[in-house]
Amino acid sequence: MNLKETKITIVGGGSTWTPGILKAMTRYKESLSFKEIVLYDINEERQRHIGEFGKLLFNELCPDVKFEYTTDKELAYKNADYIFCQMRTGGYKMRELDEKIPLEEGVIGQETCGAGGFAYGLRSLRDMIEMVEDVRKYSKDAWILNYTNPAAIVAYGLTKKFKEDKRILNICDQPINMLMSIGKILGVDEQSLEPSYFGLNHFGWFTGLYNKDGQDLLPELKEKILQKGFSPKDAEQRDKSWLDTYALVEDMVRDFPEYVPSTYVQYYLYPEYKTKKLDPKYTRANEVINGREKRVFEECDNAVKAGTTLGSNVVHNDAHGEMIVEIADTIHNNKEKTYIVMVENNGIVSNLPKDAIVEVACVLGNRGPIPFHVGEIDVFYKGLLENQYGYERLTVEAFFEGSYTKALQALTLNRTIVDAKKARRILDRLIKANKAYWPELK
Ligand code: G6P
Ligand code: MN
């Protein structure tokens, strides 16, 4: 076990996901040997609720750990070993607009896919670049583990900007969320499954699921999905919109029976159907604002009032918190476990561009992710992914160059939009809505 004492900083300390990360951390105190935890956020008031909960939690479970929350960058980033990042530039208010503006124009409005993801991407890039620069000023060797969305755009942009920096790892919990659900459907512990997977973030497929005997359980999984449908492991705790989203995995397996796709592929395969199902007056952002956001802050406050976190069920979905902490532990202790994470392609998928950021199975240790080779993918997947790669790249180039034309090209290329006149209408509305966050597009 690596006994070096560590400092871990969570960027976006006021996030609704932070309590889950903190709870997971208490289970890794010995193996991550942390002595100091800092929450950092630009929103002091929001972070206070989570910060007070965290203080109590660590006081109860790991009293020898120094726990702080701050809006001071130096305090947050100085001598840090691991940065867990999950910021949301513009908050849920801007997520709401990302979802509603495209829907009002008759196309998919979603947090990370289509025009919504594009808008969010242009917001995230500025703050994410600033975060990396700030962290590197104070801690040049810290591992930056990043969940910030839209992860595909953020990862591509950061990789272009910080070419030599090998300690930024972009991750997403959807593959592990799916694996947990898959484990339940198959009646096996998902930890015993070694997945093969390829794609871009929020746009990928499971191509194999090997058990300890080397047997591929993917054919059995597809059979079961076709017989009984697909529902998430934690279905009881999921809101209706997510249950609908998971249910469509069955449709995708029926239409394209080769592999099992990520839930997010549905926005690209069934854009018309999905758009009709989504309500421009009440989107996922509203569901979150009225649900998780209220609940998490209330439950944090209640625990603080009660003077104990024991018995508090502030955390429902564990996968998100568990994954980032487990990844830090895997790196810290060089455990060489397999995770599906984002890396620069460089030939992993041999017929996709070298600089695409692919999401694939990697062995992870203290040298970072070592990807498994995928090889050539078939024309259907290549077509879809090349298209999405073009969209992602143009989005990032529009950001760096301040180019309106590239922004319009990006949106036109996106499968959820296609029509250039529609793309222009949406772009112009998004520019107005994002004035405070985007670079000027000329
Ligand atoms: C999954 C994805 C994340 C996304 C989240 C949205 O976990 O991997 O990238 O942010 O879902 O969840 P929400 O409950 O906020 O809609
Ligand atoms: Mn994700």
UniProtKB/TrEMBL annotation:
Residues the record marks as site: Increases basicity of active site Tyr: 111
Gene3D superfamilies linked: Lactate dehydrogenase/glycoside hydrolase, family 4, C-terminal, NAD(P)-binding Rossmann-like Domain
Residues noted as binding Mn(2+) in the record, renumbered to the chain: 172, 202
UniProt keyword list: Cobalt, Glycosidase, Hydrolase, Iron, Manganese, Metal-binding, NAD, Nickel
The protein's assembly and partners: Homotetramer.
Similarity field: Belongs to the glycosyl hydrolase 4 family.
Active site per database record: 173, 264
Cofactor annotation remark: Binds 1 NAD(+) per subunit.
GO biological process per UniProt: carbohydrate metabolic process
Domain Glycosyl hydrolase family 4 C-terminal: 197-416
Entry cofactors: NAD(+)
Annotated substrate binding sites: 95, 149, 284
Protein name: Maltose-6'-phosphate glucosidase
Example GO molecular function: oxidoreductase activity, acting on the CH-OH group of donors, NAD or NADP as acceptor
